[in-house]
Each structure stands twice: as structure tokens, then as C-alpha cells.
Amino acid sequence: MSEEGGVIDDTTDVLDSDEITMPNEEQLELAERIIVRLNPPSRTAISKMIHAKAKVVGAIFTGYAVFWWLAVLQVEDNTNFESIFFGPDFVTITIVAPCLVFLGSLLSDFSRELGQLFPGLVSGIMFVLAVLYTFEPAIMGMVDEISMNSGLWMSFRLTVLCATVLFAAKLLIDAWLLGWVKTLMEHYPDLDFSDNGVETLTLDELDSETEA
């Protein structure tokens, strides 16, 4: 009888230890927000979604590099354009503006998912600077600082580069968030989907499933 009691106690201890090692409330809330927004149809579909998004991001960045090489490095611009915002030239702007968009997207999603104020403020500043850099050549062309055609051509290339990076950044961030959810569910197998949310099996539910 004592041996049976010891087995029961050991089983209860195992279940209790499993319950203690469950993720905290903040992790569950973050996982639920990600699942609700990205809406994976099932647990197994997360890996497929990560793969699909990562593949598209790789293709986009490859196209971005080819476009930058052909439309910026291989084109001789007769205008010696320098921005009034800290003075970078056009080639430097084609690097700085997309980087601002990429970092701004990271901070924006970080602020949205975690509810942080400061990253959102910084992302707003980065997006504004990127917009200023992108449309500054066209505005300079309108006020006869440079030729209209040169200004529009530079702004067009910057728009394509920034828009491409913005789209790729969104997909990359979504893939990273899905990867985090996937890792969380691998560490805690008792997590499950419930109406596009995350549900944690309690000790009573584990007992009922064991009895069934």
C-alpha cells in the first residue's frame, strides 16, 4: 500500500513540476497576440509559414541587391546631390534610407507586440527621416536646385528600395515571431491552439486525459 502511495505521490510531483515550468503570463499573452495576428491554421503549419516567409524574404533581398547594383552603382548621375539632412550624397542615402526603414520596422513591431513606448517613438523618427531622404531629390527638382528629371529619377529609385525593404522586413519579423512561438511550444508541449489563441492544459485536464 505504501508503494502505491509512493507512486501516486511521484506522479503528482511530476505533474506539479510540469505545471511549475509552464511559461509565464507575459509569454502566453505575447504568443496569443502573435497567433491571433498571423493566424496559423495549426501547430504544424507554423513551420511551413516560417519557411514560406523566409524564402520570400531571401528572394526579395536578392532582387533588392540586383536593383541597387544596376540602378545605383551602374548609373552615372551627373548631379552631385547632397542632402540638407546631415549632408550624405545620393549613394549613401540609398544605403541609409532603407536601413532606417528596416530598423524602424523592427522597433515598430517590437513596440506593438510588447507594448513598449520608447521603441515606437524611435521608429517614428526613423520613418520620418527615411521619407525625407526619399522625396528630398524630387522636391529639390521642383525648386530648381537640381533638374526635375534627375530629382524624380533619384526619388523613384529610393522609393523602390525603401518599399522593398519595408515589405521584406515585415515578412522577416513575422517569420521570427512565428519561430519564437514554435520554440515556445516545443519547450512546453501542453500549449495548444484554442480559437486562434493559446491554451495551457491545467493539472485537472491532464488528469482527465490520463484517465481517458
Derived from helix and strand composition plus strand pairing, the structural class reads: mainly alpha
The number of distinct β-strands equals: 2
Spans of at least 5 consecutive residues with low confidence = 1-8, 14-20, 197-212
State the end-to-end CA separation. 24 Å
Question: For the residues shown, what is the average pLDDT?
Answer: 78
Shape: elongated
Number of helices: 7
The percent range for strand residues is under 5%
Helix proportion: over 70%
Biggest sheet architecture: 2 strands, antiparallel
Write down the Rg.
Answer: 26 Å
Order of helices and strands: HHHHHHEEH
Strand order of the largest sheet: 1-2
Describe this structure in words.
The chain has 212 residues and is mostly helical. The model is unreliable at 1-8, 14-20 and 197-212 (pLDDT under 50). The protein contains seven helices and two strands; from the N terminus they run ααααααββα. The protein has helices spanning 2-20, 25-38, 45-73, 90-114, 117-142, 148-187, 203-211; strands at residues 191-193, 198-200. The chain is elongated, with a radius of gyration of 26 Å. A two-stranded antiparallel sheet has the order 1-2. It has a domain at 67-180.
Give a topology summary:
Blueprint (H helix, E strand, L loop, with lengths): L1 H19 L4 H14 L6 H29 L16 H25 L2 H26 L5 H40 L3 E3 L4 E3 L2 H9 L1
Antiparallel strand pairs: 1-2
